[in-house]
Design brief:
heterodimer, A: about 800 residues, alpha+beta, 4 domains, twelve-stranded mixed beta sheet, 26 helices, about 50% helix, about 15% strand, B: about 240 residues, alpha/beta, Rossmann fold, six-stranded mixed beta sheet, four-stranded antiparallel beta sheet, 7 helices, 10 strands, globular
Chain lengths: ~800, ~240
């Protein structure tokens, strides 16, 4: 065997061009597979980095009538009842909040963090790497903080002596009592933890059972299954529903494995990635198989001589497979090293969307997978030339004095079949990428009026510790908007609690005059507070009724401007102006909201979003504002700095607020599908390049083998263009067959993508047709060079063998 | 001159009226090598009249096949003067030379060079399809030639299913199916045994009697005797 390997290496050295193309092809195929496997292994296969991770569960509340949102957060009182009434769990911890204000020098900046109960860390099974964890006592007194590894390095230069170290969080000094190990930050994406104070837990809003914004982690007792825990909490939830019908009727509990929960968003996308990677490997294998077939054809004489001096069929097969394995190991090693070198890049690319991204690395499992792929690829690709040599009459090869006019028909069929396979797989990937691209395009055009690039959106986050009252916050926004409107180039400015395509809040409503039957589906409706001028700044056309006025204040009858979708859903065929609705569970005359206007819909961003049934209410009646929008007369580039400066003028201690154009906000809202699209487009382009290289290789090789035939044809009267046409027709036929097979495969495969794409059907005709045209055009381009070569065949040179 | 634009259906066309089919004056063929020029043909002066049967002989490397390539207008890189049916080939672009070839020349190879993937009938059809003969006419012409050469029974066989002699018979039939004025044959019997070779030479003789001008290259004196004229080449020179 070693002799075969040595001979294989020598043969590869003799043909550097062939070796380079083969190694590069395999490096791409195996590299992509290794990279994708490293993601899959880190996200899906590797256990969570905590003790006995299978016992860790995530608990959510769920509304039995809400078919859109499967899971909600948890209210603190319900958590306390679960803790007291369940026996399935060894421990249970709660976490709340998502952002803190950290004072660094004279700057305040926002840091992702959590208030956690003291049981949270023991439940997860993680201790600080330095210092101590929270105790029950800390929930009473507070004043202590745990830092994430990165934050600790940044603030204290990795000083392990924590004595006397303090930080100012939300304007209050906290003693640093511990540092969490690296990687722990990625659990719930936090880098700072404070104890959930008893004093907060017993006051609004945490003490309300309808304030479902906490998260719960629990550890199952040994021997207790997920189903047993679920059944027990179901019982508790029913009891709480009976006990607190206003807040808990129709509310249930959902217990899920923590690992599944953390990877829930990316889990459906991974089979697509795995399928794409497998397609690329198959294309690379088909390419290598073709190259090896061409090589074996040109080596038939050498192999015949080997056979004549005693080499059996198995011995020849071993020789060919050894060469294929050597190539595969070389290519695979290059691909593996490339992944090793670029693993940081991959992690960075996917980090905003990929849970557990910090754990993505190349470990022994990835190495073993890569090695297995290399060996299998080598074996599979080696089979093609073995088949060709086994079925050839090697004695005839030695006896053959002249040249055959046409190439070996069976080998030619096999090679054509491999090219068709490559092209078909490329079509599948291109269609997938095309659908993702069209979906991204759809999501990036949510129905905004002209020039969303002229609108700036600035999220203004006011620390509750300094602006505890709603009125204080409203005043801040009023002052800010008044100043913004005085800036030159500003056409209109308004504010909203949030921009629809970047988030929102929703609740069920009831309509006046229509009884709210318990068995009827809930009318879930999104709501948003807006300031005057908001619609003008957004250029959201008012279709009926009026905009908000100064009269729509606290104490005046509640009013709302609703969207077209809500008007159609709730008052189909009726005039919606003057109709009234209220939040489900709200009572009293003052709770009714009157419709005073109808505006055009805005489609919500992200996959699963749609034209929303939603309503806008005036900020003076529902004082929650968080984002200002400013429409400029022209390019708003210089306006961003002025907006930030105005915020600082109003409060110097606020951190710099991020300003984006509306285009960018919309683009961010579609970031997950955009990432999927980018990855698919990159991989599909790679697949297309490989398939085209394969097509070129086969056509070029066939032209070389058919030189005599072309010479004969020219000698018999064929024009040069007849010969070119012959080559192009053949290439075109392969492309068409490949496209047809690819379309058939894509018809089924793209259904896998249905949950990722929006606004485009998985069998979108323009995408399918576009990809076929692209493939045929590119395949014909790949045939041009061989066709030119065929045109230049000199009949006398070609026939000189006579 | 643009031959292609004035091209007519060669199958319908009679042989040219003039007697001077080919006229070569000081034709030379040479290659540039590191050591200078290597000559393959030197000062070839040759006249071939319509209806001639000319044999070219000479040792290997004498330039026989090269001369045949020039006569067939497959080779465009030479010097001197070459008139074909009064057309100054030396002044014609390769494209126009190819048009002349297509109209007037048929070629028979030593190795037959039938297309392996095509049946006998399809092989015969190929030259006609390249001359844009309508399909309905082609079928009739192929049937005529199959009948004339006595190979009707073989029409659906592939070349690999024929003997060497049968393959060369088909190759000759293919070369003359478009009714060329000039038939060039490069060692047409080189791969055949004596009986088969004689059969082919008798066929050439018959074609020549019917008016086809033939130029053959051979090493065999007996087959050379079928021709009316013998030209010997040595080291690129024509022996007087």
């Amino acid at each position: 065997m070693w002799q075969d390997v040595r001979f294989g290496l020598r043969m590869l050295r003799k043909s550097p061009g062939f070796t380079a193309v083969a190694v590069l092809t395999l490096a791409l195929g195996i590299g992509v597979n290794t990279a994708i496997f490293s993601l899959v292994e880190a996200v899906l296969l590797r256990p969570l980095p905590f003790p006995e991770p299978d016992r860790l569960v995530d608990i959510n509340e769920s509304h039995r009538k809400d078919t859109l949102l499967a899971e909600y957060g948890v209210s603190f009182p319900n958590f306390k009842d679960w803790q007291a009434q369940s026996r399935s769990f060894a421990s249970m911890g709660i976490h709340e909040g998502w952002e803190f204000w950290l004072t660094e020098g004279d700057q305040v900046r926002s840091v992702r963090g959590k208030n956690i109960s003291w049981q949270y860390l023991p439940t997860v099974g993680i201790q600080p790497m330095w210092g101590r964890s929270f105790s029950a006592e800390d929930e009473k007194s507070g004043g202590v903080a745990l830092l994430g590894f990165g934050l600790w390095q940044r603030l204290f230069g990795a000083d392990t002596n924590l004595t006397g170290k303090t930080i100012v969080v939300n304007d209050q000094r906290q003693a640093v009592i511990g540092v969490m190990p690296p990687g722990f930050d990625s659990l719930h994406r936090s880098e700072l933890w404070l104890p959930l104070l008893e004093s907060r837990a017993t006051t609004e809003p945490l003490q309300s059972r309808s304030w479902r914004l906490c998260g719960v982690i629990a550890r199952l007792k040994p021997g207790v299954s997920l189903h047993q825990a679920q059944a027990e909490l179901d019982g508790v939830a029913w009891r709480l529903g009976d006990e607190y019908p206003d807040d808990n009727a129709d509310w249930g509990v959902r217990v899920s494995s923590l690992r599944r929960k953390l990877t829930k968003s990316i889990r459906p996308a991974l089979p697509v990635f795995i399928g794409v990677a497998a397609c690329i490997l198959l294309i690379a294998c088909a390419n290598l198989g073709n190259l090896l077939l061409a090589r074996a054809a040109s080596r038939q004489k050498e192999l015949a001589i080997r056979a004549s001096v005693g080499a059996g069929r198995w011995r020849l097969a071993r020789q060919l497979i050894a060469e294929s394995l050597v190539l595969s190991l070389l290519g695979g090693t290059v691909g593996f090293l490339a992944v090793l070198w670029g693993q940081g890049l991959v992690a960075r690319l996917v980090s905003p969307y990929m849970p557990r991204f910090a754990e993505i690395n190349v470990d022994s499992a990835v190495f073993l997978f890569s090695l297995l792929v290399m060996i299998l690829t080598g074996l599979v690709c080696g089979l093609a030339p073995v088949w060709q040599v086994w079925r050839a009459d090697l004695n005839a090869v030695l006896k053959e004095s002249g040249h055959r006019v046409s190439a070996d028909r069976s080998a030619s069929w096999l090679r054509s079949g491999l090219v068709v396979t490559e092209l078909a797989l490329a079509v599948v990937l291109l269609i997938g990428a095309g659908l993702a691209l069209r979906s991204v395009h759809y999501l990036l055009h949510p129905g905004l009026d002209a020039a969303p690039g002229q609108v700036l959106a600035m999220e203004v986050e006011l620390p509750k510790i300094r602006y505890p009252e709603k009125t204080q916050r409203l005043e801040f926004f009023e002052q800010l908007l008044a100043r913004v409107r005085t800036l030159p180039h500003v056409q209109a400015a308004g504010a909203a609690s949030f921009l629809e395509f970047s988030g929102g809040a929703r609740s069920p409503i009831v309509l006046e005059g229509i009884p709210d039957r318990p068995d009827a589906p809930a009318r879930w409706t999104w709501s948003c507070s807006v300031s005057p001028d908001f619609f003008r700044a957004m250029r959201l056309p008012l279709l009926q009724g009026r905009d908000f006025t100064a009269e729509d204040r606290t104490g005046a009858p509640k009013v709302a401007v609703i969207t077209e979708t809500m008007a159609r859903r709730d008052w189909p065929g009726e005039h919606p102006l003057g109709k009234r609705f209220a939040g489900r569970g709200d009572s009293g005359e003052e709770s009714w909201i009157t419709v005073v206007g109808v505006v055009r819909d805005l489609r919500t961003g992200g996959v699963g979003g749609d034209w929303r049934a939603s309503y806008y209410c005036p900020c003076y009646q529902s004082p929650y504002l968080g984002t200002i929008v400013v429409r400029a007369f022209s390019n708003p580039a210089g306006l961003a700095a002025q907006l930030q400066s105005l915020v600082r003028d109003l409060d110097k201690r606020l951190p710099p607020m991020s300003v984006q154009t509306l285009d960018e906000v919309v683009s961010d809202s579609a970031s997950e599908v955009r990432m999927l699209g980018q990855i698919l487009i990159s991989l599909a382009t790679l697949a297309l390049v490989l398939a085209v290289v394969g097509t070129y290789g086969v056509i070029a090789c066939t032209v070389a083998q058919r030189t005599h035939e072309f010479g004969v044809r020219i000698a018999l009267g064929a024009d040069r263009r007849d010969i070119a046409l012959l080559v192009l027709t053949w290439g075109g036929r392969l492309a068409l067959i490949g496209a047809a097979v690819g379309l058939f495969l894509a018809w089924g495969a793209t259904r896998l993508m249905a949950s990722f794409i929006e606004g485009v059907s998985p069998t979108d005709l323009p995408t399918f047709v576009g990809v076929v045209l692209l493939l045929c055009a590119v395949a014909l381009l790949a045939c041009l060079l061989p066709a030119r070569r065929a045109m230049k065949v000199n009949p006398m040179e070609a026939l000189r063998c006579d | 001159m643009n031959i292609a634009t004035t091209e007519r259906n060669p199958a319908r066309e009679s042989s040219p009226a003039t007697d001077a089919l080919i006229r070569l004056r000081n034709v030379e063929k040479r290659y540039q090598t590191k050591a200078g020029f290597t000559y393959v043909l030197r000062q070839i002066n040759l006249d071939i009249a319509a209806g001639d049967f000319v044999t070219i002989m000479g040792p290997s490397g004498a330039g026989k096949s090269t001369l045949l390539g020039i006569l067939g207008m497959y080779d465009h890189a030479w010097e001197g003067e070459f008139e074909f049916l009064g057309h100054p080939v030396h002044r014609l672009a390769p494209k126009d030379q190819a048009a002349l070839n297509k109209r007037y020349v048929g070629f028979v190879f030593q190795q037959f060079h039938l297309l392996d993937d095509l049946t006998v009938a399809e092989n015969l059809d190929i030259p006609l399809s390249y001359r844009n003969v309508p399909k309905s006419e082609r079928q009739g012409m192929v049937a005529d030639v199959l009948d004339r050469f006595g190979i009707v029974a073989k029409k659906d066989l592939f070349p690999a299913q024929l003997s060497g002699g049968q393959q060369q018979l088909v190759a000759v039939a293919r070369a003359i199916i478009a009714k060329p004025a000039l038939l060039l044959a490069d060692e047409p019997t080189g791969n055949l045994h004596t009986d088969q070779g004689r059969e082919i030479m008798e066929l050439f003789k018959k074609l020549n009697h019917e008016g086809t001008t033939i130029v053959q290259v051979t090493h065999n004196e007996a087959w050379a005797a079928y021709g009316q004229r013998l030209i010997r080449l040595k080291d690129g020179w024509m022996e007087k």
